[in-house]
Structures are given as structure tokens and as C-alpha cells.
Design a protein that fits this description.
The strands form 3 sheets. Strands 7, 8, 9, 10, 11, 12, 13 and 14 form an 8-stranded mixed β-sheet that branches. Strands 1-2-3-4-5-15-6 form a 7-stranded mixed β-sheet, sandwiched between helices. A 5-stranded mixed β-sheet has the order 18-17-16-19-20. It is 25% helix and 28% strand. It folds into 3 domains: 21-152, Gcn5-related N-acetyltransferase (GNAT) (Aminopeptidase), CATH 3.40.630; 176-335, 3-Layer(aba) Sandwich (Aminopeptidase), CATH 3.40.630.30; 345-441, SCP2 sterol-binding domain (Nonspecific Lipid-transfer Protein, Chain A, 2-Layer Sandwich), CATH 3.30.1050. The protein has helices at 21-24, 40-53, 61-74, 135-149, 205-219, 229-234, 289-300, 318-322, 345-351, 402-408, 415-420, 433-441; strands at 25-31, 77-83, 99-109, 115-126, 154-158, 171-172, 175-182, 196-200, 250-255, 261-269, 278-286, 307-314, 329-331, 335-336, 338-342, 358-365, 373-380, 383-388, 398-401, 425-426. The relative contact order is 0.13. A hairpin with a 5-residue loop joins β9 and β10. It is globular, with a radius of gyration of 23 Å. The longest helix has 15 residues, at 135-149. It is of the alpha+beta class. It binds acetyl coenzyme *A. Residues 53-54, 121-126, 131-137, 157, 159-161, 163-164, 167 line the site of acetyl coenzyme *A. Acetyl coenzyme *A (ACO) binds at residues 53-54, 121-126, 131-137, 157, 159-161, 163-164, 167.
């Protein structure tokens, strides 16, 4: 669809104040276009609105064009909310949306190498002078209903604030943490990873990064496939602030014993004026434990460097266990990273493989009504059959909100923790049901998502 085409649905006006959303705003959906397209102006204005919504410096035209080109590769659907009446002098142009919302489709690893389609939500902004009028609620409600109608089992996002998305049924499924790793002579691994590390030309990452990521994506539960910007960043072609070249980027590639690349690290030096001497890890993707530890062994032994910092380290990090001195890793408290929102309980649960057989009746509440109900989850030989039992009243062994079912879905959050937090309730006849669910949902390695979107 293009801007201004048949998708110009007025936002429905039920439940809004008199003279509210329907009169004041118009909603348009369109596919991102590159600068070569005659529809580019709508995409460019939309990108500028996102930039404004996140309080960033206004973008140069070249940055807008590059962002649009990357969005085009991702095939993003952009939704904009526009004022229906022209503003007074000094207002932004009528073509600049007051609210933005983008989606694209990728896959999510739900454990044991299984990939399911996921509806990714991103770039959600409402302009400062249009906030708290219900625009996000309207955009999210419509979007989730459309994704469900399309048959996508799960939606996902990464959040700017942890207080916004639970009300829409999203739950935290993976965590990450910022680590500072002291390097130099004290940095010694207790194990010897197989394979070797090669310093590589950053430009090679345009091809290598997606290939290596595809392998890692299949290996790690909770992983979400990546958007175009990642390979450009690893190749030094997308500096975060400017969107331009990043001449500071360096790259190391891990080669397995057979010579196949199975991991990479992209990093940059903070400069000699910065003490202690710091290497900033931009990205570390590893398809195997040997690649992960091999790359850390390389980073930990860089001469003249005192420490490596990484914002996106796994919450359960093998490096800590592999070091002779685990205190070399100083970590901040884990932050929420991937948020999931199951849209279709049966499709989502049947897509998974299970670590233990068993049978449970689940009662799922859902304020948006998309996935509410009672369900029988029966697992035989690791394969689930899910039967919908109707409305969410009546007996259940586990009762939980759709946000909590989404949290435990890829095995990165334990139902036992949510039971202790009072989020999950178990039936009187089955007090151990949260533990049974935890055993069923266990995955082959700690869940982690390395893709911010
Ligand atoms: C996936 C992503 O892109 S994450 C990025 C989110 N965007 C940002 O952080 C940019 C800055 N913030 C904004 O642009 C806006 O404030 C938004 C998008 C967060 C909210 O948009 P609004 O149109 O103001 O939200 P809306 O009025 O529809 O509120 C919906 C509900 O969320 C609540 N809410 C909205 N913003 C927040 C917040 N920052 N913290 C907690 N609750 C919030 C509202 O109180 C309301 O609650 P209720 O309906 O349950 O009573």
C-alpha cells in the first residue's frame, strides 16, 4: 500500500471524548519507501516524526534517506496518525504524523531450534503535545487485532519504559545486562575454546554478519531475526548518532576448526583520552560456545586495553563461569529486553517443543480479549496438543494473564518466579502446577535476545 491509498481509515471514535479522536485524527498505513520512490515524502516525514518523539537531534536528509532504505529492506509497514485540520502558523507540516507505529515480520526462536513467525512492533511515538489522549491505545489495539487476524501467533517489542506495555498483554521474556569486563594479564579462561579468531575487514560483515547471525538465531531460544541496520553497523556503515560511516569499528571473526565462520565481534576503541582504556563491544554474535568464549578470549587479551564494556550481555553469561577469576565481570542489574505478546494460545503453544510430558489446564485472562480462555495443554513425547475449553471461568491448575504466559513462553522466565510474585495462581488441587509448567517449558540453553528493534 502507498501513502494516501485505500488504507486511510479514520480512527474509530468509540470510547473517546466528544470531538475526540475520530474528528481530530486520520490514520494512514503504508509500506516504507526509499528515496527513489515517488512516495518517499510520506516515509521521510514519518521518520522525522519518530526522531522528534524520541527527543533526538533533527536528522540530516542523508540520514533520513538511509533509514528509509533500511526500512524498505525490512519491508516495514508504517502507521501514521495525522491531524485532520491544518494547524496555526508555526505548526509542523500536515504531512508530518503526530503519532507513529511500525511493524515488520521476522521469526522468533521458541527453543530447540524452532522458529515461529513474530509480529515486531517498533518506533512507537506520540508527539509531546498529543500524548495521553488514547492514541497509543488505539494504535496498539487495532494492530494486535490485525496481526491475530493474519494468523501470526505472537507479537514482540523492546520497550523504552517497563510501565507501558503490560496493559496490552506483553510480558518480559528475556533480560540483558551491561557488563564491564576487566582485561589484561588477569583475564584468563579456564577452558581452551576450539577454533581461532581472525581480525577481519569491517566491510566483509555486509555478507558475513547475516550468515553468522542466522546460525546463532537457530541456536538461541528467545532470539529474534535481525533488521537490516545490524549488518550495516557491524560493517562500520551506520554510526548510531549520524547514520554515516563509523571509521572506528573493528571486527573479529571466529572460525570453527573446519574454517567455517561461526561468530563475530564488532567493537570500537573509546580513544586515548578516555581512562581506563576501554573497548566498547557493539555486537557479539556466536553460534557456538566455542565461538563465544573464543571471541572473549581475543577481546580479553587486547594489548593496552584495561576493560571491555558491553550493554547487551546475556543475563546468564557463560563468560562468568569460564573465567579463572569470575569477579573480572562486573554486571549491572539485568534489564527487561524482549517483550512477547501471545495472540493465539493454541498456535503458540503447539509450535513449541517441550522438555517434559504432562497435562495442565490453563486459565488465561486477556484484557484485550484476543487470547482469553481455558486451554488443556497436553504434551506427549515433547509435542503439545492444545484444546480450547471456552471462556476463562471454571477450574484450572494454572491461572495467569496473557502477559505472564507470554513471559514464560520461550523458557527465559520461570513460572515458579511468577507464582512467588503473585502473578500466577495454582489450583488448590495442584499446588505444584507452576513447577510442572516450568519443567515442561524448559529450553536447551538460557534464553537471550540479541536484537533490539
Ligand atoms: C515499542 C516501542 O517503540 S517503545 C517506545 C515508546 N515511545 C516512547 O517512549 C517515546 C516517548 N513517549 C511517547 O511517545 C508516548 O508517551 C507513548 C507512545 C509512550 C504513549 O502514547 P500515548 O498516546 O500518550 O498513550 P495513551 O494515551 O494511548 O495511553 C495508553 C495507556 O498507557 C498509559 N501510558 C502511556 N504512556 C505511559 C508511560 N510512559 N508510562 C506508563 N503508562 C503509560 C496511559 O496511562 C494509558 O493507560 P490506560 O489506558 O490503561 O489508562
Amino acid at each position: 500500500m502507498t501513502a494516501g491509498a485505500a488504507s486511510e481509515d479514520a480512527v474509530p471514535g468509540d470510547g473517546v471524548p466528544a470531538g475526540g479522536l475520530a474528528d481530530r485524527y486520520e490514520l494512514r498505513r503504508f509500506r516504507a519507501s526509499g528515496s527513489e520512490s515517488q512516495d518517499f515524502a510520506a516515509t521521510a516525514e514519518w521518520i522525522r516524526a519518530v526522531n522528534y518523539g524520541f527527543y533526538e537531534k533533527a536528522l540530516a536528509d542523508s540520514h533520513v534517506a538511509k533509514t528509509a532504505a533500511a526500512y524498505r529492506v525490512d519491508d516495514r509497514e508504517l502507521t501514521g496518525v495525522y491531524e485532520t485540520r491544518p494547524g496555526p502558523p508555526g505548526a509542523f507540516p500536515a504531512g508530518r504524523p503526530v503519532a507513529t507505529f511500525a511493524t515488520f515480520r521476522k521469526t522468533l526462536n521458541v527453543g530447540y531450534g524452532r522458529l515461529v513467525p513474530a509480529h515486531l512492533v517498533t518506533a512507537v511515538t506520540v508527539r509531546t503535545d498529543h500524548r495521553r489522549r488514547g492514541l497509543l491505545r488505539r494504535l496498539m489495539g487495532e494492530d494486535l487485532a490485525r496481526a491475530k487476524a493474519d494468523g501470526v501467533p505472537v507479537a514482540a517489542l523492546t520497550a523504552s519504559e517497563a510501565s507501558i506495555y503490560r496493559r496490552f498483554g506483553y510480558g518480559v521474556a528475556t533480560h540483558e545486562r551491561r557488563v564491564t569486563v576487566s582485561t589484561g594479564p588477569r583475564f584468563r579462561l579456564a577452558v581452551r575454546p576450539r577454533g581461532r579468531v581472525m581480525a577481519a575487514e569491517p566491510g566483509a560483515m555486509l555478507e558475513l554478519a547475516p550468515t553468522i547471525f542466522a546460525r546463532a538465531h537457530r541456536a538461541v531460544p528467545g532470539s529474534v531475526d535481525r533488521q537490516e541496520q545490524y549488518r550495516l553497523r557491524a560493517a562500520g556503515q551506520w554510526e548510531r548518532g549520524s547514520g554515516g560511516e563509523d571509521a572506528a569499528v573493528r571486527v573479529a571473526v571466529h572460525l570453527a576448526e573446519d574454517g567455517a565462520p561461526d561468530g563475530y565481534a564488532a567493537y570500537r576503541f573509546r580513544g586515548w583520552s578516555h581512562e581506563p582504556a576501554t573497548m566498547e563491544l557493539l555486537d557479539l554474535v556466536a553460534a557456538t560456545p566455542d565461538a563465544y568464549l573464543g571471541l572473549w578470549g581475543y577481546l580479553g587479551s587486547l594489548d593496552l586495553i584495561d576493560r571491555v564494556v558491553w550493554d547487551e550481555a546475556p543475563a546468564d553469561d557463560p563468560l562468568v563461569w569460564a573465567l579463572e577469576d569470575s569477579r573480572l565481570v562486573r554486571a549491572e542489574t539485568a534489564r527487561d529486553m524482549l517483550w512477547l505478546r501471545i495472540l493465539d494460545v493454541r498456535a503458540a503453544l503447539e509450535a513449541r517443543r517441550y522438555a517434559h510430558d504432562g497435562e495442565l489446564i490453563l486459565r488465561v485472562d486477556d484484557a484485550l480479549g484476543l487470547a482469553a480462555g481455558r486451554y488443556r495443554l497436553a504434551v506427549v513425547d515433547g509435542t503439545a496438543t492444545v484444546e480450547a475449553l471456552g471462556a476463562p471461568d471454571g477450574e484450572a491448575q494454572v491461572s495467569l494473564d496473557i502477559a505472564d504466559l507470554s513471559s514464560v513462553y520461550v523458557g527465559g522466565v520461570s513460572p515458579v518466579s511468577l507464582l512467588q510474585a503473585g502473578r500466577i495462581r495454582t489450583g488448590e488441587s495442584a499446588p505444584e502446577a507452576a513447577l510442572v509448567l516450568a519443567q515442561m517449558l524448559a529450553v536447551e540453553r538460557p534464553a537471550h535476545c540479541l536484537t533490539h528493534f
